[in-house]
Amino acid sequence: MAYIVTDPCIQCKHTNCAAVCPVDAFRAGPNFLVIDPIECIDCDACVAECPVDAIYPDDEVPMEWVDYIELNERLSEEWANHVINEVKDPLPNADEWAEKDNKRQYLQENWDENAKPVNP
Ligand code: SF4
Ligand code: F3S
């Protein structure tokens, strides 16, 4: 089992979750965080830290977001050099983005693009 970051994190990236993880399982992308399922020890500490309720155990991920299970696994490999274990400022307009649903289309997978957060 592992914990999974899902859709509400996109364009918010509050990072409170990453600061409490005892095994540094979080990896950062330009506008999203993922959890490395190999590192996660299922301690549950991160869930309560996320102000937008983006984190679930893999067996409780809402049906519409089950693809995020594979996404966390894949992106944690691609972002292996982007370990995050401290709080950073959330992205601009995080509060506005928190009210939006289905943000998958805005996910920026590639650091190489020098991608900037888009406006809400
Ligand atoms: Fe880290 Fe625990 Fe969250 Fe897993 S459940 S990512 S070990 S804080
Ligand atoms: Fe994302 Fe929530 Fe963590 S918005 S960065 S999962 S605190």
Helices and strands, with pairings:
Blueprint: E1 3-5, H1 16-20, E2 26-28, E3 33-35, E4 55-57, H2 67-78, H3 94-98
The chain binds iron/sulfur cluster (SF4) and FE3-S4 cluster.
FE3-S4 cluster is lined by residues 5, 9, 12-17, 33, 49-50, 52, 54-55.
Give the gist of this structure:
It is built from 3 helices and 4 strands, in the order βαβββαα. The chain is an alpha+beta fold and 120 residues long. Bound molecules: iron/sulfur cluster and FE3-S4 cluster.
Overview of the structural elements:
The chain is α+β, with helices and mostly antiparallel strands and 120 residues long. 18% of the residues lie in helices and 10% in strands. The chain is built from three helices and four strands, in the order E-H-E-E-E-H-H. It has a two-stranded antiparallel sheet. The termini are far apart. The relative contact order is 0.29. The protein binds iron/sulfur cluster (SF4) and FE3-S4 cluster. Residues 5, 9, 12-17, 33, 49-50, 52, 54-55 line the site of FE3-S4 cluster. Iron/sulfur cluster (SF4) is lined by residues 3, 20-21, 23, 25, 35, 40-46.
